[in-house]
Design a protein that fits this description.
Distance between the termini: 49 Å
Strand order of the largest sheet: 4-3-9-10
Radius of gyration: 25 Å
Order of helices and strands: EEEHEHHHEEEEHEHEEEHHEHHHHHHHEE
Largest sheet: 4 strands, parallel
Structural class: alpha/beta
Number of strands: 15
């Protein structure tokens, strides 16, 4: 397979080739665990989960690292408000995050490092930056001196002249340059702190990821992923400090960034007040529905959450309906294909994912397979198509249940009403294929619809 990925560093789609033949190293920025995570934080977890599944079909060894930031000023403030110790607070919300993304069908990474477990390599990296003239100590702080790195700004395509001093960085009198960022800062007695050559303190956010990458994957890695909101300043700062420690050699070969979720016309963020948590959504929707919605848009583009979620249930029902139509007595699910060879997977789905992880195209290929199943009248053909659909489901992290398990919730009246509302929305959007699929799925579950001038009525037929 030839996999191409859009590299933020170059602004181009490039053929992916790992540094070490047959081996891939990938690091993705995980959450800062001070509260329940919103669904926007679920997008990178799901997107890069699909990428790792794809890479493992092609490469013998894929090492996937996704960190947890468990020392941060937001955690400190939230713990103070909750009355918990800072460590207890971080641990509780780390566990909540892992539970939430597992419900989205996300497989655990190979390594899940935490910042607090890497203080020694963090200090060692800071000492090296000071020793080679890229960092300095000032009033108990250690700061990276941005003007010392001539390549600073190349990831986010910002020149030093274009960066407005004080924008998104703390302005302090002890800085040589307002753009300089913190590598180490002092801690008061009530805050987490560790002994260091510069006194008791704690690391800055950016140095944590650089040190964890270096510890678990080495000085140069193949892929670094995260949300587009991290490109500047977090990833720019990561790139600068790691490159300087490497003597000018870039630490990341392919930078990948997923777009943000929007809700009500604005980026989903606590500061905006339009946050919807994964946990809240899981109380109303199956995790697989949420996963489908997150994959319904191309990962690099913004995703309008309300619209994507409205279509996800019906679309997923359609895929499960095709599996039910092709029932041959086997109870196998997509998980059966987790160790299958590449030839077992549908070419159209593979081709889509190899083209910069084009999940909308991959989902369209899945629905084409479902349509082929419904048209086929030969048992062997149906069986082959069903296997392809399940294999494609494993790549996308979908079709993890049997059709009977998926559809059993339709006995609930509220669920029927919800599905009718989704059908009405599909008809209003002139998505008649989806509307018909929802009607057919309800009919198969013994729910008959009648469209009248006053709205859609329904009754159970069995």
């Amino acid at each position: 397979m030839e996999i191409t990925l859009h590299n933020t560093q170059t602004g181009q789609r490039e053929r992916f080739e790992p540094l070490v033949p047959g081996e891939v190293s990938i690091y993705v920025c995980g959450p800062t665990v001070y509260d329940l995570q919103h669904i926007g934080n679920g997008r990178p977890a799901v997107v890069f989960d699909v990428l790792v599944r794809l890479l493992r079909l092609e490469y013998a060894k894929v090492t996937y690292v996704r960190n947890i930031t468990d020392v941060d000023d937001k955690i400190n403030a939230a713990a103070l408000e909750s009355g918990e110790s800072i460590a207890e607070h971080a641990e509780r919300y780390a566990a909540e995050y892992l539970e939430d993304v597992a419900a989205l069908g996300v497989m655990p990474p190979d390594v899940e490092p935490r910042a607090t477990g890497h203080i020694e390599p963090i200090i060692a990296m800071i000492e090296k930056l000071i020793g080679i003239g890229h960092a300095y100590e000032a009033e108990g702080h250690v700061l990276f001196h941005v003007p010392s790195d001539p390549q600073y700004g190349t990831l986010s395509r910002r020149s030093l002249e274009e960066m407005r001093d004080g924008a998104r960085v703390e302005v302090a009198p002890y800085k040589k340059d307002p753009k300089d960022f913190v590598l180490w800062k002092p801690s008061t007695p009530e805050l987490p702190g560790w002994d260091s050559p510069w006194g008791r303190g704690r690391p800055g956010w950016h140095i944590e990821c650089s040190a964890m990458i270096r510890t678990h994957l080495g000085p140069v890695i193949d892929i670094h992923g995260g949300g587009s909101d991290l490109a500047f300043p977090h990833h720019e700062n990561e790139s600068a400090q790691s490159r300087c420690v490497n003597g000018g050699t870039a630490s990341v070969r392919y930078w990948l960034h997923n777009g943000m979720l929007t809700f009500g016309g604005a980026k989903m963020a606590k500061s905006v007040g339009n946050v919807v948590t994964i946990r809240d959504l899981l109380e109303r929707h199956d995790g697989e529905v949420l996963r489908y919605a997150l994959l319904s848009g191309h990962y690099r583009q913004e995703l309008q959450w309300g619209e994507s979620l409205a279509h996800a249930q019906g679309s997923l029902d359609s895929l499960y309906g095709a599996l039910r139509d092709a029932d041959d007595g086997d109870n196998d699910t997509a998980a059966s294909y987790s160790s299958a060879g590449v030839d077992a997977f549908p070419k159209a789905v593979l081709d889509a994912l190899c083209a910069d992880l084009n999940t909308p195209r991959a989902l369209a290929a899945m629905h084409a397979l479902a349509a082929d199943i419904r048209r086929a009248d030969d048992a062997d053909t149906v069986r082959s198509l069903r296997s392809s659909l399940l294999a494609g489901g494993w790549l996308l992290g979908l079709l993890t249940k049997s059709p009977s398990e998926h559809f059993q919730g339709l006995s609930d009246d509220a669920t029927v009403e919800h599905r009718i509302a989704e059908r009405n929305a599909a008809r209003a959007a002139k998505d008649f294929a989806l509307a018909d699929a929802i009607r057919d799925e309800l009919a198969a579950e013994g729910v008959q619809l009648e469209d009248t001038a006053g709205g859609t009525r329904w009754r159970r037929t069995g």
